[in-house]
Write a structure and sequence with these properties.
It comes from Streptomyces fagopyri. InterPro entries: FtsK/SpoIIIE/SftA (IPR050206), FtsK_dom (IPR002543), P-loop_NTPase (IPR027417). The protein is α/β, with parallel strands linked by helices. It has 13 helices and 14 strands. The strands form two sheets. The protein has a ten-stranded mixed sheet with strand order 6-5-14-13-12-7-11-10-8-9. Strands 1-2-4-3 form a four-stranded antiparallel sheet. Helix 9 packs parallel to helix 10. It binds adenosine-5'-triphosphate.
Length: about 450
């Protein structure tokens, strides 16, 4: 045996062992090429076995009869493009007459087994063209975001989807969002990723952290306003409502100028205003929203009603004024009192981490994507951070945010502290950077020593 043959055998053996062990980088080196060859080689027979072929047309049968040739075979969708990616393959298929996108999506599980891939999903790109995304390994096991994402204003690459695509939180298309999940399910890490993604953008961050500020106050240098208790939250929300009314006046004033100018665009929201007039957009992050809705006394009930009213007004009118809500909690249903379901109806973007019961999952998806409810309650306990995300179009996907630690988020916020806008309306709530207060008393006092 020559040295070359030995080297070849070693390389093939290494590739086979790695294929079996499947480390994350396997796909970068061997996986995509192997999978592309395998898919192309098996394509027609697999599509036939999965019921994704159509019988020959009458015209083709007649031509074969005239030419005295054998009966033509059934035909599978035509491959328009096959693109290897960091996590697997993307196939673009042109459907044959009589096929629809549902046929392909209904066969995804069969395709997954037949092509020996980890996951297969499909979506319709346009009439007659379907994209099939295949992943070679569990991309949500250890999330690695691609180095290059598609940047756009108010669009944060916040997590990875199970098909290997990046999941964006786009505030311009989905202005308000609701994130639910049981305790230790990964809500705070998801919210931290949002803050880390928003920190380098021209946006004001406002936080209401009812966990006594433990999640958002360490990120204070990038926040224009923060509140850590329901009383401060009420004042902050009412200040935001009056800021929103001021922004509406700016938009109206600009409309009066342009309405007389023929063919001019008339401003309908802050994004139609000229740059020098446009107020900075605001993202309001609310952590543990149920704390704002609970009350024990008459006074607290009055405060709760005012808080929910302010939140409903921001959700209904905030988008045009560039105010976006990001609400986080363990549950968000009608048991929290009047106004909650009205507020929930305005929160278009829904994300549910692991939940403990079906009714919590229903709070996120019951009214928009019933099959996502089942997916949310199936999230295992041992993989915190996995979530199901959907929107009002009825579509949903499994996602996981990268594991950003509080230290990494703090460093990012400190790096971009210079971008924190000063909002005069919210000045009383601007956090003051300073030395952290030391706990004055230990939580448990030492028992006196007895003889
Ligand atoms: N995307 C993720 N990848 C890996 N680990 C994660 C991820 N998200 C969360 N975790 C792990 O799960 C733990 C709990 O996460 P997190 O604090 O975000 O949960 P939570 O839902 O906010 O809980 P609580 O409501 O009790 O505050 C974290 O300490 C972290 O180690």
């Amino acid at each position: 045996m020559t040295a070359l043959t030995v080297a070849l055998v070693v390389v093939i053996a290494a590739a086979l062992v790695l294929r079996w062990r499947r480390p994350a980088w396997y796909w970068l080196v061997f996986g995509a090429a192997f999978a592309a060859v395998r898919v192309l080689f098996q394509y027609t027979s697999v599509m036939d076995a999965c019921g994704l072929t159509v019988p020959p047309s009458r015209w083709r049968l007649a031509m074969a009869r005239l030419a005295n040739r054998p009966v033509p075979e059934s035909r599978a969708p035509r491959i328009l493009r096959l693109r290897p990616t960091r996590t697997g393959l993307v196939l673009r298929l042109k459907l044959r007459p009589g096929q629809d996108a549902f046929d392909v999506s209904a066969s995804c599980d069969r395709l997954r087994h037949s092509f020996a891939m980890y996951g297969v999903t499909s979506r319709e790109l346009r009439s007659g063209v379907v994209e099939v995304r295949m992943t070679g390994y569990d991309v949500l096991k250890r999330v690695q975001m691609p180095a290059k994402t598609d940047p756009a204003p108010m669009r944060v690459p916040v997590a990875l989807r199970e098909d290997g695509a990046v999941h964006y939180r786009d505030y311009r298309t989905v202005p308000h969002g609701l994130t639910l999940g049981a305790t230790e399910s990964g809500k705070s890490v998801y919210q931290r990723n949002l803050v880390a993604g928003l920190a380098p953008m021209d946006v004001a961050l406002v936080g209401i952290d009812c966990k006594q500020g433990v999640e958002l106050f360490p990120l204070a240098r990038r926040f224009s306003a923060l509140a850590d208790n329901p009383n401060a939250a009420l004042d902050l929300l009412e200040a935001l409502v009056s800021h929103m009314e001021d922004v509406y006046q700016v938009i109206r004033a600009e409309q009066r100028i342009t309405v007389n100018v023929p063919d001019a665009e008339i401003a309908a929201d802050i994004w139609d205003l000229p740059d020098h007039l446009r107020p900075v957009p605001i993202v309001v992050l609310v952590d543990e929203v149920a704390e704002l809705a609970l009350f024990a006394t008459k006074d607290e009930e009055r405060r709760r009603d005012r808080i929910i009213t302010a939140l409903v007004r921001l959700a209904q009118l905030g988008r045009a004024a560039g105010i976006y809500l990001e609400i986080c909690g363990q549950r968000f249903g009608s048991e929290l009192g009047k106004g909650i379901t009205m507020l929930r109806a305005q929160l278009t973007g829904r994300t549910a981490h692991r939940v403990n019961d079906e009714s919590s999952a229903n709070m996120a998806f019951g009214d928009i994507a019933p099959d996502a409810v089942l997916a949310a309650i199936q999230i295992p306990t041992e993989t915190p951070g996995i979530a199901v995300t959907g929107d009002s179009s009825g579509g949903w996907a499994r996602i996981r945010a990268p594991h950003t630690t509080l230290r990494q988020a703090v460093n990012l916020c400190n790096k971009h502290a210079g971008r924190t806008p000063d909002l005069p309306a919210l000045a009383p709530f601007r956090p003051v950077a300073g030395t952290p207060a030391l706990a004055s008393e230990p939580l448990a006092k030492a028992a006196p020593a007895t003889a």
